[in-house]
Amino acid sequence: MGTTSVQDQSTVTILCCLCGAPITANPSNMCVHCLRSQVDLTQGFPKQCALVYCKFCGRYLVPPKTWVRADLESKELMTICLKRLKRLVKLHLVDAAFVWTEPHSRRIRLRLTVQDEVLNRTILEQSFIVEFVVELQQCADCKREAAKIEAWEAVVQLRQRVDHKRTLFYLEQLILKHNAHEDVLGIRQQKDGLDFYFVHRSHALKFLSFLHNVACVRQRQSNHLVSHDPSNNVYRYKYTFSAEIPPICREDLVYLPPRVATQLGGLSSLLLVHRITNQIRLLDPLTGFEHHIDGATYWRLGLTALMNARRLTAFVVLDVEPVERDPAATSCGHLDQRFRLADATVARAADLGVNDQQFLVRTHLGNILKAGDLVLGYDLVSANLNESDLFESLQSDSLKATLPEIVLVKRGYPQRDRTKQRIWTLRELPKDDGDVGEHRHALREGARVTGRQRDQRDVALERDREEFMQELEQDPELRATVNLYKDPTKFVEDGLGRLGIRYPGDRKWTASERAQGQSRRNVQNANRFDGQRGMNAYAVLEADTDADQSDDYPSVSLDELLDGLDISDDADQGQDAVTS
């Protein structure tokens, strides 16, 4: 009996003050039906709004003058619709969902569920539908294009004065990963870099800010007056921003004159470029210490590369003996624990069977190299460095005695055509034909670009791209900074819905078969790839590499690859043509 009385007291029943129906006691003393009839949360709320849509570019207007591209029933379109409802800020939005309409009806409906506090702190929830009428209007960009007026207002000219494009390829992947090209109107490939065109100057400044965060960029600016309306005092300019990247790249050998080395805190004379971000990371191969130089310091000193990766020479490791670092040694840099000092005995791969010349080299690759490995390095003994006035001090006998004969850079691998076994690919920026800039230069010189010159340019471009992709395969740290995608042409699906890898000349392999046959197929379908650096050295080791088919080449695991890349992705991201 005691329990029953407690339950009766906790659930008090009263009569509704309007209809007299028995209800549970609440602060308003009304049932839900009567409460909804007395209070309307949507009173004064617009049930119909207008959305401005440009049918030429597929973008919606976000007042006052921003145009945003959004698909039907997407979260971007819902955000645009909710921003049009100004009174929504006074209510608590619980749920929002699209109500299906015919795509050609120019009607977009949203079902909104809102809550608010009404009589005597009673919480009332109500659902209603808001209809948006799509009105067609041409955006300013499409108007300029229809009137054949130059659409771009600012251009960023990204340049690097080197004989390869590996750094530009890496920068392109960073732009794609961080979606820094979302405001780009068009991209044009030039001889030494890329031109990025923007509709507004603010978009170009935003892109320049991104470049300063990922690279040591020297920026210059100029503007050109296009038109002037004296009655309204309105000026229209076109802005040109020059962004220059240092002409040094990863794996380059940099020589510091004694005066410059002293200014930087007593650095070594020969340093390897280990990484280039918004700072240049220089590695001392004789001590393993790493030094950082910011962009302002680099441009003030004007450092250049003594030797670049094109001049790497192949060596064979005969013996490796680890060396302990001297605890009393001091340096202004910090110690990189990924490397270990060692004394390596190496010989030129081209000299095997010709002479017995060997070199004892101090290297930072002690934890990577072992006897019999192939290693790439700079041969300072046979190098010709008399062409530049910057290195006249190298002729000093006292300085020559302190410089090493060989500077080892990284481990090498036998040259093979690895494109057929590569199961990953990279995205590319949609670029216009680069012949435009070359034709202009040729016209100034009174000549014209021939088909042979274009073929040579394409061959050099593919060679640089292959070298960059091999760098990604061999360097996990570099690979972690970019997005790698599964190559849709290399992955196939069997009858059971399992995803497998397709190899050259193979039938459709399944994932279970791949684990058993991948290594064997990689070896059987490997072909030597000509046109790469160090080919003369690899030709010497041809017999050894054929006998030992396992070259221990680094591979990219499936866990590192992203899905979602389609063959038509680049076409979907194509930008409007740039008028110049």
TrEMBL record:
Residues 510-530 are annotated as: Disordered. Residues 312-411 form the 60S ribosomal export protein NMD3 OB-fold domain. Its main location: cytoplasm. The keyword Transport applies. Pfam families: NMD3, NMD_SH3, OB_NMD3. GO terms for molecular function: mRNA binding; ribosomal large subunit binding. Residues 513-527 have a biased composition (Polar residues). GO terms for biological process: endoplasmic reticulum organization; protein export from nucleus; ribosomal large subunit export from nucleus. It is found in: Cytoplasm; Nucleus. Signal peptide: none annotated. InterPro entries: Nmd3, Nmd3_N, NMD_SH3, OB_NMD3. The keyword Cytoplasm applies. Acts as an adapter for the XPO1/CRM1-mediated export of the 60S ribosomal subunit. This is 60S ribosomal export protein NMD3. The lineage of its organism: Eukaryota, Rhodophyta, Bangiophyceae, Cyanidiales, Cyanidiaceae.
